[in-house]
What we know:
Elements (H helix, E strand, L loop, with lengths): L11 H23 L9 E2 L5 E2 L5 E2 L18 E6 L3 E2 L13 E2 L4 E2 L10 E9 L5 E8 L5 E8 L6 E2 L4 E2 L6 E8 L9 E2 L7 E9 L13 E6 L7 E12 L5 E10 L16
Parallel strand pairs: 1-8
Antiparallel strand pairs: 2-3, 4-16, 5-8, 6-7, 8-15, 9-14, 9-16, 10-13, 10-15, 11-12, 17-18
Amino acid sequence: MKTLQHLKPNSPQLLRNCCIIFTIMLGISNFEINAQTGTPCNAHRWTQGGHWLANCGVDDGNSAPAPRGIVRCGNSADTESNISPNTTYDPANFTINPFMCVDPNNQMGISVTAPFTGQQISWFNFDVRPFAGTYDFQTIATGNFELNWALYEATSPSCGTSGGNNLSGNCAGGMNLVYCGTDFTGWSSLPYPTLNFTQPTNLYLAVWKRGITGPSQEGNWKWTFKARYGCGDFCSLFASGTPSVTCNSNGSYTVVQNLQGTSTTVSVSAPGSTSITT
């Protein structure tokens, strides 16, 4: 029988044993964090596009260093293919609630069903620079199947990436659903506006197979991501909010409508109006 030894508090053997125990506990702790399936923190960072510089600058050059992931200017799309699922859906960790979704091919409303628990999903992270206003993207199924997608915006934006997956914003913080829809057959007729014109937009895209109800229908599926027009270079105009109508004391009234647009010139007419201010 091996005799137990009494070790002094500062003995090398005791310190070594403590380090081993601490390392094992730290390893278990990291495993538990990484085991949070279905969350945006599982996302794959887009390998194409621009690279963040200091003070929210962007290197758009073809030789920009990694990590990349910022939508570049112009109508020439940057593409990443053969993207695979990287987690499974667990609503206990992150709930996907598609709401008011739109078919990007005709701009009509369409029903999008959330993934079933345990379904393979692909989380994908990319960014839009400040003052861009709009951007354009596509999800394309690689094969004879269709996709559903839901696009979230991180509520704590950043001009940079961090962590082992080089993700932007706070993947474990607040997420707002901004758009959802189905597979693209071409570019959408309208660009996608950013919600905050002056801030960077850190986007987390969840993609899953459409129309399946169980694991036996999953298969080994992949998809492709494309993006372009990331500098507000797409001509667009949107009404921002509802009109505000004020009745004046002289019997006239004032109407105020906020607009959001990029690369466009607006002419306003109001028959019978005494003045127009833009």
